[in-house]
Amino acid sequence: MGAEFVSLSLPPMLIGTLAAIACALPGNFLLLRRQALIGDAISHVVLPGIVAAFLLTGAVATWPMMLGAGGAALVAVLLIEAVRRLGGIEPGAAMGVVFTSMFAAGVLLLELSDTSSVHLDVQHALYGNLESLIWLDGTGWAALSDPQALRGMPPELPRMAAVLALVATLTAILWRPLKLSTFDEGFARTLGLPVRGIGLILVVMAAIAAVAAFDAVGSIIVIAMFICPPAAARLMTNRLERQIWWSVGFATLSALLGYVLAGYGPLWLGGGHAVSAAGMIATVSGVILGAAALFGPCRTRS
């Protein structure tokens, strides 16, 4: 049982947890700035850029994907401004048109191109491929201390660990400017802080987390983890520091419990097949948010 768990379940559980925490950290500040749906927007916008990067390079590599996602984000900004000016509509409506159109274009590219052999198709774009991220060299717990066996780890694991370390480091370095500009933008300006630059860095952090998590966990978990754990944490406390830790705990619980329920829940209920790990993780995060909304100490009372 130990060898089976290490090779089949431990890597996807770790990858899902790292991705959830990496998205939840910037999600706290996006939520407090009333920009929580930026995570949703990013996950929609990056899809055509990632697919285009693969079609041009023929490989699923980190830097081409990042450049493709960045190019897609730039195109989205230009299209939003063009739609807003030419159509004379409000920015929110322009963003809705552009984001949904670009996501539809990305799905169309996936359907028309032969990308299924590299796990880049509609199913993997939406639900990820957590279940397939197994560690064949993980023959037991001893493999965790075997350098040769560790080299056979799924590449998504060190990638997500590096992204989480980067996001956490940037959050720690920019903690005071982020906190000031989030709660009192006017006061932050009087102190000479580059408020727009800080907001841009926050969006870039969210984009890096979303792109890194996209291949492993798909867009569903990315969207859920940007919003649900931070929103649930906000209902548990009025202090930002505690909110961060609450969100990390909720993200971890959602990833671990969701993966277990996806694999064993149907069996416990008499079913014969597992369900999507990404969908179940997102479901658990939504249930946690619902529970916090009902019983959280800082929920709004009428």
Structure explained in plain terms:
With 302 residues, the chain is mainly alpha-helical. It contains 12 helices and no strands. The protein has helices at residues 2-32, 38-57, 62-87, 91-112, 122-127, 147-150, 156-173, 175-183, 185-190, 195-234, 240-268, 277-295. Helix 1 (2-32) runs parallel beside helix 7 (156-173), helix 1 (2-32) crosses helix 11 and helix 10 (195-234) crosses helix 11 (240-268). The longest helix is centred in the C-terminal third of the chain and has 40 residues, at 195-234. The radius of gyration is 20 Å and the shape is globular. The model has no long low-confidence stretch (mean pLDDT 83).
Let me know the largest β-sheet.
none
Spans where pLDDT lies below 50 across 5 or more residues:
none
Distance between the termini: 51 Å
Mean pLDDT across residues: 83
Helix content: over 70%
Q: Count the strands? A: 0
Backbone structural class:
mainly alpha
Helix tally equals 12
The gyration radius over C-alpha positions equals 20 Å
Shape: globular
β content, as a range?
under 5%
Element-level helix/strand string: HHHHHHHHHHHH
Layout of helices and strands, plus pairs?
Layout: H1 2-32, H2 38-57, H3 62-87, H4 91-112, H5 122-127, H6 147-150, H7 156-173, H8 175-183, H9 185-190, H10 195-234, H11 240-268, H12 277-295
Compose a concise summary of this entry.
The chain is mainly α and 302 residues long. The protein is built from 12 helices and no strands.
